[in-house]
Amino acid sequence: MGEFELDYNDFLELFIEESKEHLQSINEELLKLESEPENPAIVNEIFRSAHTLKGMAGSMGFEDLASLTHEMENVLDLVRNSKLGITSEMMDVIFSCVDLIEKMIDSIEQGGDGKEDVTDVVRRLSMIQNPADPFQVRQNSAMQESAAAAVVDFEIDQYQLSVINEAEKTGNKLYQITIQLDKQCVMKSVRAYMVFQAVEELGEIIQSFPPVEQIEEENFDNSFSILLLSHRTTKEIQAQLQPISELSQVIVKERIVKDSTVSNQESTSEGKITKPLTQKQRKEDTSNKKHRSKSIRVDIEKLDHLMNLFSELIIDRGRLEQISRKSDLTELTETVEHMTRISTDLQGLILNMRMVQVEQVFNRFPRMVRDLAKELNKKVQLIIEGKETELDRTVIDEIGDPLVHLLRNALDHGQESTEERVALGKQEEGKVLLKAYHSGNQVFIEVADDGKGIDREKVLHKAIERKVVTQNEAETLTDNQVYSLIFSSGFSTADKISDISGRGVGLDVVKTKIESLGGSISIESEPNKGSMFRIQLPLTLSIIYAMLIKVEDETYAIPFSSIVEITKITKEEISTLYGQKVIQFRGQVVSLVSLKEVFNVPGVETSEQQELFIVIVRKGDKIIGLVVDSVLGQQEVVLKTLGSFLTNLYAISGATILGNGEVALIIDSNQFFK
Amino acid sequence: MGKIKIVAFKLGEEEYGLDIHFVQSIEKIQHMTRVPNAPEYVEGVINLRGNVTPVIDLSRRLDLKQTAHSENTRVIITKYEELELGFMVDQVNDVMDVSTDSIEPASSNDMSAAFFEGIAKSEGRLIILLNPAELMLAPSS
After folding, report:
1. What is the CATH number of the domain that holds B32?
2. Which residues of chain A approach chain B closer than 8 Å at the C-beta?
3. pLDDT tens, A558-575?
4. CA proximity to B80, closest of A645, A182, A199, A63
């Protein structure tokens, strides 16, 4: 009994994982279908997923799930046979059906029985199929449980029936082939596969018993049956199967299906569409399985722990490097160098293990945007780019909410109402672009809309009203400075508070969240062209490249990600503008910030240095120069927090431990920009 | 009649005590990294076995006269809830038992009164008991 349970749990896991994949693909395809209702390939794709889902649910014994997917499949079937047009009510019902399925699978995943009240949705589904008879609930054919008999009576559903009818018009006949494998046959599934291959050459396989999936897993007795549509004769079929060895019996019978329920309506060469599908499905199934066997699941906590331990190792490595340099022992130096190389590889690997594609977060947005657009009565197309971009797991977990916020914002505030758009001569359908990409050690995520852009005057008006800026300040602000005002707390420019955004706890929360992840957010906007929010995030949160610099006796680390260049200048090159020290750097005037001054570094009064090191850092497209005494070199450093006692320190984002065991503070140069 | 264990230490000429439950360890003074723009009583941060731990100068925190570091200067590492913090003191004397009876509640209206829990009398010594929870509140900035 124990063995069985183990098997069952394995299957359950597989079932949950695959169901989720199918659900996701149904969701995606449904969204596509809404924009291209005429595309039969999409319906087929959805149908295929629903069908597989039904089969899986049936064989796992989740009856509610199976019957629900079955009803959904029926509706989709009518659509693919052009018996039903796609209406928005239908889409809504199907979407709520998908939601319900999702709920069931969640329940199963959490160890529940996957039972939900499906009657309402089922009723709505059957109403679509048969408006005259709303309470008719179809018989569920998903669970074909019967003893393997020599001749199986196939249950033919409506869709298959229509395929058969169509095929019979072009001279095809329906055959039932029953194969008995030799008792000594060792690799039953391989034999079966050969039979399937041979039969496929003859025509189109409508159904098999047991289902293909089961046969592939050798989950059948010695016999199986196939329903085949073919224009060949019984003899020809027999002859085709003859060469396959280890078949003890091949029975080919012609079958006649009485068709009374389905009218013979025109449907475009169904036969051709379904055949490649069955093949494709099988291929995908096997590739899924292969993929699975190569990966294992690891508790995320273990990965975190691994990362922590590794950080400790990096610190020790730094210390060893220092010792070996001092001791001047060749053997020690070599060993340490080797260790350094290995640990660098190891680090890459560990960081990589923690990387997850943003797809995980992005996946739920198409659906969300669709629902939201409906609610707002706007037409929106969401374009997603770069969903394969990878980000550290910890960032992924945190980034979802801010993005939801930005997307809602884009739809609610960014995009005009349909009437306004038409009046402006824009396309009725607005576009929202969600894009992720890597650049250097950073990941960028952009949310852009083609709406009305940010209204400078409106923002300023609010900002003055809320006392975020004064009237005088307001006049001198650049557009970008004005736009960033919407990140100040308690700011909302929506005229009326809607359900979707503009509750006053808006973008400031987004900004705080992003900054807590070590990232930043900026806005670009153009009236009537739209706005773009750009989030910049570090690839990883725990280990960064930094430049170590010295000011007097104190060592600081400046993250590489913000450094543009390091340059050396003489005192004479510094000039002053309005009391601000500046230098000219590559034709640009760059303001200088003296770290000694801003950090009040105590120092011995020495004769003024003639040469100064300037670390040019950037924030967005602005640059400034940090004046330091000397540059020690670059190093990988492990980020440590200063804890909750020291918070909100000016221009300090954390600390790290150097090779000699001392603590160096990490400079957050963003705060030097005003 | 209950007893509590305290760590007794000196700030200038006065003797203070902390409930040993809050004390993690006592460290010799080591390399301290100054934290710019922190409240003036923050001495800096130290590397405490891989953790970056802030250290505050207890004399300054309590508005007492400051004394120069000596070889007796110690850092008492305390932990309250999840927060680890070092208190720099002039000298650590001993760990002692104090009976709860002998503790007089702090009643003076001193401005730092919140930091004090009471005064313990033991063998002729007067020991001011500190309230770590209050001392470890993050500075409001």
Report:
1. 2.40.50.180
2. 312, 315, 554, 598-602, 640-652, 655, 657, 661-665
3. 988 789 999 998 888 888
4. A645
